[in-house]
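Run log, item B.
One chain of 322 residues. Sequence copied directly from the ordering sheet:
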Amino acid sequence: MSKKILILHTGGTISMSEDENGKIKPNSQNPLADLSLNVNDDVQIVTEEIFNLPSPHMTPERMLQLSLRIRQAEAEGFFGAVVTHGTDTLEETALFLDLTISSKMPVVVTGAMRSSNEIGSDGLYNFRTAIMVASSDASIGKGVVVVMNDEIHPARYVTKTHTTNVATFRTATFGPIGVVSEGHVNYVQTINPQQHLPIDHIIANVYLVKAYAGMGPEIFQALNKPSTNGIVIEALGAGNMPPQTLPALQKLLDNNIPLVLVSRCFNGIAEPVYDYQGGGVGLAKMGIIFCRGLNGQKARIKLLVGLSAGLKNEQLKKYINN
């Protein structure tokens, strides 16, 4: 019995071409959309071009549309799904899908760093490898993964680390969970399961702010308004803030606006370690939620999903910490 794999094309560099001036532009038609690609005799590919957008045009509302389509695909008998995506926001879409799809169906997100007609284009290779991973029995129950450059990364932790290098996607601190070699899909580690929230709508106005030396209260004062639903802060080091920001942060908390804190560092985990004015110990006592292991853009997606599901107070804190 053949395995049906749903291909959802969303656009991005993997679907673009280089023009005569060396500039990369979208095509009116995705070159992968009608491609006849024989991966395995027992794999049946069904292709849908759900979007054709550069990844900076991706929004949480479109991420939700993808999530709903993949959830529907399981009921339609699909074994797995592959999403082709631009790399700029790929990690955010991958995490959104991982947080909102509760099934064990393999879901793979992939893309390319070089357009379809550039020398050394990586799109077709990544696409074929992603289909192999999505159709592998070993991928069942692994959650949403990102497949690029023969590596399998967890959607939860993978991030783009280089503007142009084909090996741009890395899982800081923990490393990839698998590799694809000689046509074989090999998983070498697993990650702990997380709570899934199959939301059907998206709230707005969840913001991301980066801390810096000498930071004052102005940004937080500007965001302290009734329309603000939540803020993620990329804090300094292990999770510390300049003392000048503390009164403004307290006023946000007093207005029941959730504050989630991560580190702006590339590696490591934010933790309440330092006990001085602006240190993590005091921030945690104030009620700021520490999100361990995620970067700022991913923590924002997780906060957005949790708030869209109606989580508040201790429920929200437990969800963010999981």
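Observations after the first pass:
- The mean pLDDT is 92.
- The first helix runs from residue 60 to 75.
Flagged for discussion on Thursday.
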